[in-house]
Write a structure and sequence with these properties.
5 strands; Rossmann fold; 12 helices; alpha/beta; 234 residues; globular; disordered C terminus
């Protein structure tokens, strides 16, 4: 007998009732998802997450009382629901909003005028810990997040000393934006082995997920240096 996976539970936080209702309907139309609640502002979102423990929160960035960025930061800092992942929602395609909500702890962001298919794909992606933004946009955002004038220090290398040789190889692939299947193909190992290495890397470096691992690497100049090293080797 095959046991199906439980549905991805989703909370929709937005100050517009039509948006909350529309997104909830889209979520409920998916066989692998279920909308478990809504919130009209950031404060309510935090309380609803505390109560419902959803897998994913669709978090509007601009809301009254407490905006989505501060609500996300509260969820992250206070560890209100450690397993819950945040997908930012915005009407504006501006890097400033995206960078701020990612730094607050979100796993991605999506525009409100995205298609229903793009929305549910993004929900599935963040539920799996994957950056829910197109590759060109993600590279642009990571460049904004990176500290360009900071040279990598020996202390940064010491941070990676806790990783095994294979884990370092996986780490380098992750920060280049490679997916698990791509890493498996490049390193000639099984995809399940990649997943195991990723878990060990996150635990050892004390980073919550692979999205923030990439941000962590860019902030320390580790990603850019490894890119340059690979280019010279090529």
């Amino acid at each position: 007998m095959t046991t199906s996976s439980p549905p991805i539970t989703v909370l929709v936080a937005d100050d517009q009732a039509l948006v909350r209702d529309g997104f909830s309907r889209i979520v409920d139309a998916q066989p692998d998802m279920r909308a478990v609640g809504t919130a009209p502002d950031g404060e309510a979102a935090v309380e609803r997450v505390r109560e419902l423990r959803p897998d994913v929160v669709l978090m509007d960035i601009r809301m009254p009382r407490l905006d989505g960025i501060e609500a996300t930061r509260t969820l992250t800092v206070d560890a209100v629901s450690p397993a819950t992942r945040v997908l930012g929602l915005t009407t504006y395609d501006t890097d400033a909003y995206a960078v701020r909500i990612l730094q607050a702890g979100a796993v991605g962001f999506i525009l409100k005028d995205s298609t229903a298919s793009q929305l549910v794909d993004a929900i599935r992606a963040v539920h799996g810990g994957t950056f829910a933004v197109s590759a060109p946009t993600s590279r642009r955002l990571l460049e904004r997040i990176a500290i360009h004038d900071a040279e990598p220090s020996e202390g940064d290398d010491a941070l990676l000393a806790v990783l095994t040789e294979r884990e370092r190889a996986v780490f380098e692939q992750i920060v280049q934006g490679c997916s698990n299947p791509e890493i498996a193909s490049t390193l000639h190992i099984a995809e399940v082995t990649v997943k195991t290495h990723v878990g060990h890397i996150l635990t050892k470096l004390r980073v919550r997920d692979r999205v923030h691992l990439v941000i962590w690497a860019h902030e320390r100049g580790l990603a850019s240096r490894r890119s340059a090293g690979r280019s010279r080797a090529d």
